[in-house]
Amino acid sequence: MTSQGLYVDGVTVTFDGFRALNNLSLLVEPGELRAVIGPNGAGKTTMMDVITGKTRPDTGIVRFAARDLTKLDEAAIATLGIGRKFQKPTVFDALTVFENLELALKAPRGPIACLRWVLSGVARARIEATMEQIGLAARREDLAGLLSHGQRQWLEIGMLLMQEPELLLVDEPVAGMTDHETEQTAALLRGIAGTRSVVVVEHDLEFVRALDCRVTVLHEGSVLSEGSITHVQADPRVIEVYLGR
Amino acid sequence: MNRRLVLMLCVLALAALPAFNALPADHPLHVPDFLVSVVGKWICYAILALAIDLAWGYAGILSLGHGAFFALGGYAIGMHLMRLIGPRGVYGHPVLPDFMVFLGYTELPWYWLGFDWFAFAFLMALVVPGLLALVVGWLAFRSRITGVYLSIITQAMTYALMLAFFRNDMGFGGNNGFTDFKELLGMPLNTGATRAVLFYASLVTLVLVFWGCAHLTQTKLGRVLTAIRDAESRTRFLGYNVTRHKLFVFVLSAMIAGLAGALYVPQVGIINPSEFSPGNSIEAVVWVAFGGRGTLVGAVLGAFSVNALKTWLTSVAPDLWLIVLGLLFVIVTLLLPKGLIGLLRRRGS
Amino acid sequence: MPWLIPRGLAAALALLLFLSAPARAQEYEALLPGLAGGFAQQAETVERLGLLGDPRAIPLLQAMADARLLRLADGSLAPQQGATPPEGATLIRINNRVRGALRGALGRLQLVSPDPAERSRAAEGILRNRSAADIPLIEAALAREAQPPIRARLELALGGARLASEDVAVRREGIAALGASASPEARGQLLAARAANAELLPDIEAAIAAIDRRLQLRRAAETVFQGLSLGSVLLLAALGLAITFGVMGVINMAHGEFVMLGAYTTVVVQELCRGIPELAPWSLPLAVPAAFLVTAAIGAAMERGLIRHLYGRPLETLLLTFGVGMILQQVVRLAFGAQNREVISPDWMMGTLLLPGGVAVTQNRLWIILFALAVLLACFAAIRLTRFGLEMRAVVQNRRIAATMGIRTGRVDAMTFAFGSGLAGLAGVALSQIDNVSPNLGTGYIIDSFMVVVFGGVGSLMGTLIGAFSLGLLNKVLEPYAGVVLAKVAVLVGIMLFIQRRPKGLFALKGRAADQ
């Protein structure tokens, strides 16, 4: 067991008798980039929910940075350094791009701290830098609700970066993106990995190939196969699941 | 800038009322007594509206029980006013209020101790609603009770309190509540001077609360509350302990409501359990909705306009008031989601 | 068989005369003139008439006791009719001794009267008498009495009479008989008998303890019944909410007003039926479909006209429906007046049913429990078995796919809301039987009904059923200890604590479906 990475072992989740996760085990090293693929209903989103504290597992161990995540709530897990990007981009529509990033910025989170919060020069510079990085500097004062779908995706990734997480969970980041945007996103994620762990859930195999990383295939709530993308694609069980239907 | 000027003019216009009231009765600019006391009441309602708007408009917490916090604040000051009656009651008992003598109490219940000091009673007008909000809010927010569930729970809260306060053995005067107050801070009630003092105290409080809320909503806390209102779960995943933020604003809002109640009771001279009735709370919500929730000016505007309408209509066609109020609910939700302020702004731009 | 052993002349006479009717008739005629004799003869005659047991004597003795008995010119006796006695008639006067004899004789005679109400009154009289002399009489009456309530009173009277006996064995029998009952009066008699019966004290204490046990059981049974009754009312009021709120997610604060409209529909139907004698007894059954249709129509109109525009905005829906509720309430107040309207219950719903063990059950509440269960079954059937139910479930599960399958989702929404509103109307019919029909009838039930739905689990009829009955029972169990108001407060607080542990209620949906 590593002390820093993500360690998931024997996790089972049932909804009304349906097993969304079935004895799932997964190990992500610090700084690793990992892609998770699988057909609909394989348990990808449930896995994310369990790691980020949205869903409690019936049995099993989930550890990160030597902490038991099954005992913490979403906010505590987020402060521990796990950031999550949702499948459907969720940003705060009634706030500006700048304010969205400011809220995500790593800083004390309590109500009194927020009441007395004053934006420092360093923090402002960081927000500006991130806006440049995600290409939204020109729209800093616009309400997030006015952004296009792709821009919202980027804003959310930007918010994730502001959190300075140790582990990023990214759910279908390129859905609805153009090929060019997809390539940029792959480059961005590859760049982030190395200093932090990144877990990407994705359908798009081209995108996964572009990530050039270890791949985990989920099926019916457990790991079906794991290895490089070429290894996984040659695995007869994977072919069976993907093509046999 | 323009907006600030308009607000200041409004405050000045309100501040002039008691001054014109002090003019001789035959003076053309004389303002009758009833208008001063009615507007004084509306100012308290406006403070209550601000409290509701802070929780609902900014943090998305629709409480249908804010009337309970208002009433508790009123009861706290009411207890002080009852203690000040002293031996001037009908039964002439040196310590016990009339209703206690009538119900056969031999000594003051322990929870009445301290209310002979104004400072203590005033503190309790804030602390008691705050504590209730803390307990109810903590229970509700930590188990993620949101939206209509929270509304129903808070409505049940004020309903339960109403039933409880109707009981004689609670020691709060049963269904008659408190009335027949004599004085406050050495001033006899029901004189023009006292009325003016209470009026100005309410007006100053309204301005201060307005200013405080405006400041709060401009801070990062205000933005976090907006984030919680629009996407609570997302805010959690950003690492914000949503329960604590909501609790903070809910308790603050309850204390403001308590303050409004404390200013209200000396002006109307009575407090009874019907103040807890669920209908009162939801009516206050409609002031905010009608004025325009999520804007502080809207809340105040709503409180003044709906209550002005009520005062006028209940005198000319009392049977129609409830129908008009009901229609107001329908109009606000279907046609005026942003309230009067939204309408004015659309006109303006 | 102790009651066949004659104890003195009285019993012998009574028995003999019960058995030989012709002889009795002759003796009756022979005795009558004695009523007009001297006070001593009058008293003796009265006593003998009482023992004779001919019911024809009742009106005469009654008139005599009321000082209305006349001796007519032809010497016969008759009660005075009208204000003044006829020509030649004289009023028969009595003294206190005769009056005492009359009381006893009337009590005895009425015991064998053909009229059950009279027998019942007589049983009460003899119950208060508590004289050992009555034993054979009561035994004889018991032997022919068929009605359980009167039998119960007679048995109590017999126990009391035996307690007054000289004979220890008889008294012991009496104690045992009283101890076998579950009546507070028997308990009182036993308590009173303690001083005079030192030698029977252990028997008495045992009998009292036995009564106490039975009384406790009865109280428990009655609490359960009251709880079920309240539960059935809550179930009726909450069922509609379980549909509109639980299934559609539409929060309808006007639900209580729909209940109120159902009650007023009952009033109107009753008024309409009053003019037609054949229909009058059926006004309540007729009100059931009428109330359903009226409230369902108003519900459908409200859904199509207003609520539809606010789907996905629950807080706005809450305010809107509250406003509509306010309008409905005020309109009804202006149309029907603010005071309570009277609803007449049909005969078959009136009265009290005495269950074994002395548990008293009011008929109308029993009917409401049955009605609530029937409505629940109808709901299940409508949702599980009909085309409408199928479409409704389809729309709830996936609106878009249902629409692509050709289901007109808008129509289904309207019908579902109408269905839920109609159920509220049915609740109103039931409530009109036990609560005051006034414009604010509904306000008292709305919060409780929401509590039931939240407690039972949103979207589950089973949860609503169990939620309603458990809250009803809990309320009634707490009431004796805490009083009505505090019991209510305690239940509210209890629900708040309960949803700490199970935020989604008893029957929670889990997984993706629960996230909406």
From TrEMBL, chain A:
Residues 6-245 form the ABC transporter domain. The keyword Lyase does not apply. One of its GO terms (molecular function) is ATP hydrolysis activity. It comes from the Bacteria. GO terms for cellular component: plasma membrane. Gene3D superfamilies: P-loop containing nucleotide triphosphate hydrolases (3.40.50.300). NCBIfam families: urea_trans_UrtD. This is Urea transport system ATP-binding protein. It comes from Roseococcus suduntuyensis.
UniProtKB/TrEMBL annotation, chain B:
The keyword Kinase does not apply. GO terms for cellular component: plasma membrane. Keywords: Cell membrane, Membrane, Signal, Transmembrane, Transmembrane helix. It is a multi-pass membrane protein. Residues 1-24 form the signal peptide. The keyword Repeat does not apply. It is found in: Cell membrane. One of its GO terms (molecular function) is branched-chain amino acid transmembrane transporter activity. InterPro entries: ABC_transp_permease, ABC_transptr_urea_perm_UrtC, LivM-like. The chain crosses the membrane at residues 34-56, 68-86, 117-141, 148-166, 197-216, 247-265, 285-308, 320-344. PANTHER family: HIGH-AFFINITY BRANCHED-CHAIN AMINO ACID TRANSPORT SYSTEM PERMEASE (PTHR30482), SLR1201 PROTEIN (PTHR30482:SF4). This is Urea transport system permease protein. It comes from Roseococcus suduntuyensis. The lineage of its organism: Bacteria, Pseudomonadati, Pseudomonadota, Alphaproteobacteria, Acetobacterales.
UniProtKB/TrEMBL annotation, chain C:
It holds the Pfam family BPD_transp_2. It is found in: Cell membrane. PANTHER family: ABC TRANSPORTER PERMEASE PROTEIN, BRANCHED-CHAIN AMINO ACID TRANSPORT SYSTEM PERMEASE PROTEIN LIVH. The chain crosses the membrane at residues 228-251, 283-302, 314-332, 366-383, 450-474, 480-499. GO terms for cellular component: plasma membrane. One of its GO terms (molecular function) is transmembrane transporter activity. This is Urea transport system permease protein. Belongs to the binding-protein-dependent transport system permease family. LivHM subfamily. It is a multi-pass membrane protein. One of its GO terms (biological process) is amino acid transport. Coiled coil: none annotated. Keywords: Amino-acid transport, Cell membrane, Membrane, Signal, Transmembrane, Transmembrane helix, Transport. Residues 1-25 form the signal peptide.
